[in-house]
User: What shape does this take?
Amino acid sequence: MTERIGSDLVDELERQSTSLVLRARMDKTVDDAALQAVVALIQSIPAQFGATNLVPFNVVGHALFAFTGLLSESTHARNEITRESLTAAAWQVEEQLARVFGPSYV
Assistant: This one.
């Protein structure tokens, strides 16, 4: 059931995270539009899946791909400014992942 509910989210998250990581890999730049889209999509995960704790693995996988892909590419950047830009983008994605999936101290 959750697979159908989040199918649009999965498709868009895949499209945006791929765009983000490919730009980072090819040009060593951050696609700001794709970054903002990925952040917004990650923020929408709780609303998509409601009170259930079941989030399809492909939603989580595409979100983690954006984070790990950016972080990986930052280690290959030769320019310090580029490295910092890619690292900052990666940690921006990670911050949203922690808010959605991280531990909650209620």
Observations:
- DSSP finds six helices and no strands in the chain.
- The chain has one domain: 2-100.
